[in-house]
Amino acid sequence: MSSQTPPTAKKVPSERVHHGDTVVDDYAWLTVKDDPETIAYLEAENAYTQQATAHLKPLQETIFQEIKGRTLETDLSVPTRKNGWWYYSRTEEGKQYGIQCRVAADGETPPELKAGESLPGEQILLDGNELAGESDFFSIGTSAVSPDGTLLAYSVNFTGDERFTLKVKDLTTGEMLPDEIPGIFYGGAWSADGTTFFYTTVDEAWRPNQVHRHTIGAASADDVIVHEEGDERFWIGIGLSRSERYLVLSIGSKITSEVRILEADDPTGEFRVVRPRETGVEYGIDHAGDHFLILHNRNAENFELATAPLDAPGDWTPLIEHREDTRLLDVEAFAGHTVVHFRRDGLTGIRVLPGDREGAEGVEPYEISFPEPIYDATPSGNPEFTTGRLRLGYTSMVTPPSVYDYDLRTRELILLKQKVVLGGYDPADYEQFREWATASDGTRVPISIVRKKGTERPAPTVLYGYGSYEISIDPSFSVARLSLLDRGFVFAVAHIRGGGEMGRRWYEDGKFQKKKNTFTDFVSAAEHLRAEGWSSTVIARGGSAGGLLMGAVANLAPETFAGVVAEVPFVDALNTILDPSLPLTVIEWDEWGDPLHDPDVYAYMKSYSPYENVDQRVYPPILAITSLNDTRVFYHEPAKWIAKLRDTADGGPFLLKTEMGAGHGGRSGRYDSWREEALALSWILDTAKVA
């Protein structure tokens, strides 16, 4: 094979029969990860992609330097107050990972920190750079300080497979305790007295299915399973209420919830059920002093907020009733007020309920106002139960991520920090817009757009999309994106059905037997941008379930797109969802349907699954990026897809890049991730024929 020749995947026909339908999969052999032939093929693809993009090396390096040059490499977060300490993280120039720190707290006003300097009395909790050592990959799964502030439980991973080893550090001495537990999942929670730590583990399908109780200082072999979830559709998690009064054990499928609670000062007690699971009913709980707050969708599609007595948490009384135009996203309970995060007209918002009950103390609930036409505002970093301030994050497509404190007494927004963008960035040089495309069934689909002022129309455009799991791609800022905008690009996000931007119905209209709305909405958005003079060429980009979108629209309307970037793409959806032995498959049946047992679902999924529907038409150039250790979307999905495109379709070229030591999120170090992004952006510029 010459260096100029793309790899050719061998064909090993593998037949399967479902519902009387016989399908031949020529590339099923690529699913065997530990087969040397599989690894050799992936490495050959990497070599070909490297050779095919060799001419982009100077541009990649330029873009990497632009991202790096706009980033304040030595930086720090805004401190967050909890139990007498200010917690924050900082980064240092030349180092891949963050450093977690704290200092003793005095008052509610965060201390002023200067980049590159440490505060008197600073205590380093975790230094990711020291922990990572020489490893090519490193991530932290949980980092939880005990309520009394003396112990830190944290977990680390060095492969990207999202399986962590739990460790415990004594913060009074700086010494590591002998406690060490391998194979745990994300998250965890302390008991009130810090003697006990609860954590989760996964089953053979890598579904978090068990919560364990570990006594500090005891052997892990003595840990007790406090709950094991036998229903394969459900996963579990454990947390501590903001009040630190209750341990909250959450059990959920895609459509159903069940919550169990236990007084945090009684860690060996029995968890009690808040309300038994009821198919199709989702709910969450927070402790609000003398009552619980319950956010649920029982007879309330866009969710309703209710209260419940401490001794009868399943007895719900409406507090904020259901509204057709407002999706309630989350509720946060504090000692003196309640905060509700919501979504309306495609934008997020924050509602404050003074006092313990709506309208208490003669003060009516109100919403915090924000100045820009499109934005994203989210309560964030509020661990203290008793506080007179609300911490929130704010961003837009032109405003860098900003951290505010909202003073509940004066109703004043206090800017604490806005992400520094070096190189003379001025938000006034850029402008953002909201457009509405008309879908094939007449539905109006919102599109968020950003460009540099003075950019001539029509312009080359990147159109981003996701459209699954009710996940919303809200307007946000990107340093890396500036490398496109400053070269005359328009960047747009299509808020398509299957996401949550327009409420729960928006999600329901883009799943199961309505999934194709996700794909046709995206095509309609691209066509709208062309028709309205925004776009000359459109390059599509998406990842994970958004990678399924990329594969589907490439089949549906290949002529619409000048190129496609598909990251960790879920493109072999039918084969994956047919196999209940694979991680997360049974859980996913509540999102996609069950093609294994339902012939109608099988036929519908087969009609849109990207791998199944590659044909001989002319496809645009495609860049697929994946990771060998991804446990959510396996590497073999894009590998099989690219192999089939290269064998069957015209057009291209079709490129596959596999990170051989990373997981679903790609490379872990910030400099490594910037280089990966520089590759994607240079490919986009080259494909759009923009220097």
Automatic annotation (TrEMBL):
<keyword id="KW-0645">Protease</keyword>
<dbReference type="InterPro" id="IPR002470">
    <property type="entry name" value="Peptidase_S9A"/>
</dbReference>
<dbReference type="InterPro" id="IPR029058">
    <property type="entry name" value="AB_hydrolase_fold"/>
</dbReference>
<dbReference type="GO" id="GO:0006508">
    <property type="term" value="P:proteolysis"/>
</dbReference>
<keyword id="KW-0378">Hydrolase</keyword>
<dbReference type="InterPro" id="IPR023302">
    <property type="entry name" value="Pept_S9A_N"/>
</dbReference>
<feature type="domain" description="Peptidase S9 prolyl oligopeptidase catalytic">
    <location>
        <begin position="475"/>
        <end position="689"/>
    </location>
</feature>
<feature type="domain" description="Peptidase S9A N-terminal">
    <location>
        <begin position="6"/>
        <end position="418"/>
    </location>
</feature>
<dbReference type="GO" id="GO:0004252">
    <property type="term" value="F:serine-type endopeptidase activity"/>
</dbReference>
<comment type="similarity">
    <text>Belongs to the peptidase S9A family.</text>
</comment>
<keyword id="KW-0720">Serine protease</keyword>
<protein>
    <submittedName>
        <fullName>Oligopeptidase B</fullName>
        <ecNumber>3.4.21.83</ecNumber>
    </submittedName>
</protein>
<dbReference type="Pfam" id="PF02897">
    <property type="entry name" value="Peptidase_S9_N"/>
</dbReference>
<dbReference type="Pfam" id="PF00326">
    <property type="entry name" value="Peptidase_S9"/>
</dbReference>
<dbReference type="InterPro" id="IPR051543">
    <property type="entry name" value="Serine_Peptidase_S9A"/>
</dbReference>
<dbReference type="InterPro" id="IPR001375">
    <property type="entry name" value="Peptidase_S9_cat"/>
</dbReference>
